[in-house]
Design the sequence.
């Protein structure tokens, strides 16, 4: 025997309304025979169409002292939108290593996959819940009168439009479920079990944030809109995919303004129609990770337009952004100008200088140039002299810091430290000098006067194995770089010359004589050059030291664990230390990278290194 199934209820979108204006809505039924029935007002009685607020139009950050920054923003966000209740100020630092999923140096945005793939759904809707019944996400619905031993509470407002049967709720601080079948009216909220608390004339009723009904085949835009209407979710991006091998859909949700790990989604599939609605899966594919040194402050007074960030690290660049907050959520953030800034102050005091006579008209002033920088390099030292201790009518001169005399102070943090212990010193900079000849001393090249291609003339050394693309070289006393683009000749017998300032720009060799071909010229490379790294990529925490022929380039005779190296360019490249973590391989083909601040903390390549790599790597 069959049965009749009658589905009641629908939804309707009223568009073209004015943002922020309150609208009242009522609904009635009608037919052609008898006319229109009584109108019933909605719950709530009125509502304002609104979305996320706008951020402040401008924000700036400045240095107050060596541990404090001041962030300020314009008043327009509050003046133009009286619903702005607060501002959120976030500060964070760039991480030493890129994330494994997105290669970001600023944490990881959480990504969640919603999937109905292979469930055989043919219709219906689902609801999403965000988070649990805890303070981080719970929303207050209203109040009720609760009486011990009853299986319902009496509500002061109609909660039936906001709750579904079977939904979990909090009555006070205790969890209950809405009863599946008992009467649920504008005054009665039925519970799945007996209320067992104290009698209360007024007790709170709360629930988890819940989405509007989402169609089983909703577009990415429809899912995004439904999620952003939920409290606490804020801005998200949604991508929908369809697997040709299965029915159903996959929606990938990326949190754009919420940072770090997010509360979990859960789903109500009771209104889906198909073979296996309960098989709806929710998977966290990328766990949200905060940026280094992340901190957030909520400014509860919307008339406030500045805030001091205190207890910061001197000289460390901080990024700051400001968002507006309303009861609908948070705006996209306004990033400050400048984008990052390091706290700093005037240089610290120097150690007491000394003076002594140098001759009958001269005093010699001795200074230990070791003043604390306080966030920026000390550029000069000021020396004043006067014939009286009040320094009236004094003369003033400045001197540049130099390194003629250096003090080396050791602190034995790592035992053992005995009479046979030793340490190493490095002198100079990463650029070095052109003192290393290519090959065994017999390798020379020839070049046509006014051309940029070197051809091996004597010797058997492979030029491409000895000199990396982009490396600096000197020929005939003139400095060049080996061209980066692959269309320039570069093999065992040929090198192409480019400008020392731009390895993408050809540079020709000109001799001081009239010869057409200059022959048997030696090539010199920098004494700091360690060779090439093969196929570097953003996020790599190592260098693969392999030359153009695929042979190992063992650097262990030149550097050791803990040493500083620079990748990409000797002056403007990215600095690292060779990792001191013995669990990470340091071989003839691998250099493990770590932070310059802590040789035991992995650090990864960024675009700062790769902008000096070959054209192919830059174009990936």
Sequence:
């Amino acid at each position: 025997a069959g049965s009749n199934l009658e589905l009641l209820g629908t939804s309707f979108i009223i568009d073209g309304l004015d943002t922020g204006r309150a609208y009242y809505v009522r609904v009635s039924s009608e037919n052609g025979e008898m006319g229109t029935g009584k109108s019933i007002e909605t719950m709530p009685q009125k509502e304002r169409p609104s979305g996320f607020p706008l951020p402040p139009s401008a924000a700036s950050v400045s240095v107050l002292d060596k541990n404090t920054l001041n962030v300020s923003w314009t008043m327009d966000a509050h003046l133009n939108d009286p619903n702005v209740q607060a501002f959120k100020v976030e500060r964070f630092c760039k991480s030493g290593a890129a994330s494994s999923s997105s290669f970001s140096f600023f944490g990881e945005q959480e990504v969640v996959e919603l999937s109905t793939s292979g469930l055989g759904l043919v219709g219906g809707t689902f609801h999403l819940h965000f988070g649990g019944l805890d303070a981080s996400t719970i929303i207050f619905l209203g109040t009720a009168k609760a009486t011990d031993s009853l299986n319902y509470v009496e509500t002061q407002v109609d909660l039936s439009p906001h709750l579904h049967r079977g939904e979990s709720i909090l009555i006070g601080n205790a969890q209950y479920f809405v009863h599946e079948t008992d009467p649920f009216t504008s005054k009665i909220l039925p519970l799945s079990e007996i209320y067992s608390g104290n009698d209360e004339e007024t007790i709170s009723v709360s629930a988890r944030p819940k989405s509007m009904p989402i169609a089983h085949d909703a577009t990415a835009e429809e899912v995004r809109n439904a999620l952003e209407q939920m409290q606490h979710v804020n801005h998200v991006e949604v991508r929908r995919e369809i697997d040709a091998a299965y029915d159903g859909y996959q929606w990938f949700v990326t949190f754009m303004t919420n940072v770090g790990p997010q509360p979990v989604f859960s789903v109500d599939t009771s209104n889906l129609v198909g073979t296996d609605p309960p098989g709806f899966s929710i998977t966290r594919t990328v766990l949200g990770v905060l940026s280094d040194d992340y901190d957030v402050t909520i400014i509860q007074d919307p008339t406030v337009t500045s805030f001091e960030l205190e207890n910061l690290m001197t000289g460390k660049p901080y990024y700051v952004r400001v968002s507006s907050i309303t009861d609908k959520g948070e705006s996209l953030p306004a990033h400050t100008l400048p984008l990052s800034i390091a706290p700093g102050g005037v240089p610290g005091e120097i150690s007491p200088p000394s003076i002594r006579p140098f001759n009958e008209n001269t005093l010699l002033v001795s200074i230990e140039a070791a003043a604390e920088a306080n966030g920026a390099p000390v550029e000069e030292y000021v020396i004043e002299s006067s014939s009286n201790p009040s320094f009236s009518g004094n003369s003033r001169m400045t001197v540049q810091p130099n390194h003629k005399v250096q003090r080396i102070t050791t602190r034995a943090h790592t035992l053992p430290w005995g009479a046979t212990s030793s340490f190493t010193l490095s002198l100079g900079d990463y650029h070095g000098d052109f003192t290393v000849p290519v090959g065994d001393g017999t390798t020379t090249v020839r070049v046509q006067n006014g051309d940029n291609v070197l051809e091996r003339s004597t010797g058997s050394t492979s030029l491409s194995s000895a000199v990396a693309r982009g490396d600096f070289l000197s020929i005939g006393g003139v400095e060049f770089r080996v061209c980066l683009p692959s269309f320039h000749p570069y093999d065992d017998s040929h090198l192409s010359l480019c400008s020392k300032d731009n390895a993408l720009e050809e540079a020709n060799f000109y001799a001081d004589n009239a010869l057409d071909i200059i022959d048997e010229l030696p090539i010199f490379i920098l004494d700091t050059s360690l060779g090439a790294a093969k196929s570097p990529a953003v996020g790599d925490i190592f260098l693969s030291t392999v030359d153009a022929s695929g042979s190992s380039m063992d650097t262990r005779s030149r550097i050791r664990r803990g040493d500083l190296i620079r990748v990409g360019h000797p002056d403007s490249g990215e600095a690292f230390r060779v990792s001191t973590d013995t669990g990470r391989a340091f071989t003839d083909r691998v250099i493990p990278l770590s932070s310059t601040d802590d040789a035991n903390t992995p650090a990864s390549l960024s675009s700062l290194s790769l902008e000096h790599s070959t054209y192919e790597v830059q174009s990936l």
Notes: The first helix runs from residue 76 to 80. The chain has a mean pLDDT of 89.
